[in-house]
Amino acid sequence: MADVSVVVVTFDALPWLERCLESVRGQEVVVVDNGSKDGTVDFVRERFPEARVIEQENKGMGGGNNAGMRAADGRYFFLLNSDAWVVDDALAQLVAFADVHPEAAVVGPKLRNTDGTLQRSARGEPTLWRLATEYLAIRKLAPHSRRLNPLYRGDFDHDRVAEVDWLSGPALLVRREAADAVGLFDEDFFMFSEEVDWMTRFRRAGWKVLFYPDAEVVHVGGASHGGRMYVENLRGHLRWFAKHRGLKEAERVRRMLLWSLRARAFVLRREHEREGVRFLSSGNARTLIEQ
């Protein structure tokens, strides 16, 4: 069995994909393509013939990663976004760290933006208050405060090993044993909150999620998303709360999100926030999750 299998999910991923795959060359690599139309599949087969390519309809990030993990042989899965790449021997460092921490289901590296600045990845488990600090911009009043910026762990400098609630998903090392015990991603989460749900399930089952700062990965990120993706982000919040806190709490979250997005849409006049208002006002939490 290989130490680690790299899984990369692609969807029209050409801009950064070569750098991504070059950074993990020499490992078992499974590329799962969710219906690209930009030549991604042909590029991978020509430029990286050693990679295994799986083509499927678009099943979102969770569904794409699941297909890759089912096909992979490693005792660890390394889930790497197509717009991210490993710095130096970061992957070997993650594996070595995980080997001496058998309690860890997930180990995440330090993320960097392309300009070298820190990309915050440690997160607090969602609560109504924590989401409110994001959508009502409360966290901007005191970005380094744990109380006013708890969702993004404002008090944590990402400079030491730490147990966290969950980690954002551009680069995650996942222990196969833990995934076998808990199950793979819940594919009802098409996009967004799927990693939150997964790490919640790991922690509920007694596993740990660890942040390891000595390994680094660059993630392009930072791109705003609109239209369906913004709606899917909102739906992901509602689905997570309904699953882990119940429909009543999910409905409270819907109302808070609707109120905050109405205010933001009025002030900022951005279309994706207007689309969010239309979505959140079109039904209750249950019906919006089921759409």
Task: Report what the structure shows.
With 291 residues, the chain is of the alpha/beta class. Helix content is 41%, strand content 20%. The protein is built from eleven helices and twelve strands. The protein has helices at residues 14-22, 40-47, 60-71, 90-99, 128-135, 176-182, 194-204, 228-244, 247-268, 271-280, 285-290; strands at 4-10, 28-33, 52-55, 76-80, 84-86, 104-112, 118-119, 122-123, 162-163, 166-167, 171-175, 208-219. The strands form two sheets. Strands 1, 2, 3, 4, 5, 6, 7, 9, 11 and 12 form a ten-stranded mixed sheet that branches. Strands 8-10 form a two-stranded antiparallel ribbon. The protein is globular. 43% of the residues are buried.
In a nutshell, what does this entry contain?
The chain has helices at residues 14-22, 40-47, 60-71, 90-99, 128-135, 176-182, 194-204, 228-244, 247-268, 271-280, 285-290, and strands at 4-10, 28-33, 52-55, 76-80, 84-86, 104-112, 118-119, 122-123, 162-163, 166-167, 171-175, 208-219. With 291 residues, the chain is an alpha/beta fold. β6 and β7 form a beta hairpin.
